[in-house]
Amino acid sequence: MEKLPAGLRFVEKAEEGDYAQVAALLNDFGLDDHDAATQRQIFTNSTGVEFIYQGATLIACGRVLSDRITQTAVYNIAVRRDFHDQHLGSALMRRILERYHGTTITLHTHPNTVAWYRRLGFHHLKTGMIIFSQPDSQWFQDEGFID
Fold first, then answer.
1. What global pTM score does this model have?
2. Which of 45, 79, 104, 143 is deepest in the core (most CB within 10 A)?
């Protein structure tokens, strides 16, 4: 399994997440605007979670929905800005890829991070389709996710 620099640790149990920090991290990147209670529900309802902590401080997070046989979808990958360029996002993703190896892994991402996911082995899906909830659809169009 993936190793982290000294002082950092992976946490894979949803009940050990600090959801005030999760909400702040995801909100900081515009990935989500839910509060801590809703993030707790979202992450605990997911098949799997990955957190990276330094002591009690959340550094990175991600979550997965999977049937653990054929299909896996990755969501909410985020790393604190002050920890960028330390390959922690890659470590978190490689950990997810190891845990769900053997399934088809999909995700949708911001157009600015497509190249990063390609370096991790992802391919552009030409036939992907999506229906966004009504309040989200305009933002996804404005950000270049959809036509």
1. 0.90
2. 79
